[in-house]
Amino acid sequence: MAPSGTGKTTLIEGLLAQFSGWGLRVGVVKHTHHEVEVDRPGKDSHRLRQAGAAQLLLASPWRQVRFEERAGADGERPPEPDPLDLVDELALGRLDLVLAEGFKESTLAKIELRRSALNQTALPPDANIVAIASDDPNLKTDLPLLDLNDPPAIAVFIHERFLTREKP
């Protein structure tokens, strides 16, 4: 949980490398404020969506993508997705852990990121924040303070706090 440019995606990349190295299967749910369009005009999948498919699953032996059209009432912006609903859409039986990026309004457990060069102030109080990750080792907090530039140590914190399976 942090403003854009703090390093959320970079941290998750580091966490994924660490968890994958331990043999864990990790899913990621990422929030964006932008309209997402990964399909291209002229492709069959795009044509089917344009023709009115409310959901479309595009699959190959290597990967699959599920598109779902979300519309607001009377052409208004649709409501923000609920991260727990999105997690439920994952094949949880094939995952050991799910990381979420964004969703600051959710009730998910959160690690707040603070980068000293950005002169960030603390976010509003949130009982779901379980730790602070910062590049300032002298940051004053009552929560566990993690080194933002040490993804392996943050992975250990997450593993010890949320996973029961031992690291390989």
Can you tell me about this structure?
- The chain is of the alpha/beta class and 168 residues long.
- It has 2 domains: 1-31 and 80-168, 3-Layer(aba) Sandwich (Rossmann fold); 37-79, no CATH class.
- The chain has helices at residues 8-21, 44-50, 83-88, 151-162; strands spanning 26-30, 55-59, 64-68, 97-101, 110-114, 129-134, 145-147.
- The strands form 3 sheets. It has a 3-stranded parallel sheet, with helices on one face. The chain has a two-stranded parallel ribbon with strand order 1-4.
- Helix 1 (8-21) packs across helix 4.
- The radius of gyration is 18 Å and the shape is globular.
Record keyword descriptors for this entry:
alpha/beta; 23% helix; 168 residues; Rossmann fold; globular; 2 domains; two-stranded parallel ribbon; 3-stranded parallel beta sheet; 4 helices
Write down how many β-strands occur, each being a DSSP E stretch of 2 or more residues.
7
Instruction: Compute the number of structural domains.
Output: 2
As a percent range, the share of strand residues is 15-25%
Structural class: alpha/beta
Taking the alpha carbons of the first and last residues, their distance comes to 29 Å
Largest sheet: 3 strands, parallel
Q: What would you say the CATH architecture of the largest domain is?
A: 3-Layer(aba) Sandwich
Give the full name of the CATH homologous superfamily of the largest domain: P-loop containing nucleotide triphosphate hydrolases
Q: At the third CATH level, what is the topology name of the largest domain?
A: Rossmann fold
Measured on Cα atoms, how large is the radius of gyration? 18 Å
User: Number of helical segments?
Assistant: 4
Approximate shape? globular
| Quaternary structure of the protein | single chain
Could you report the average pLDDT, rounded to the nearest whole number? 85
Question: Can you tell me the residue ranges where pLDDT is under 50 for at least 5 consecutive residues?
Answer: none
Element-level helix/strand string: HEHEEHEEEEH
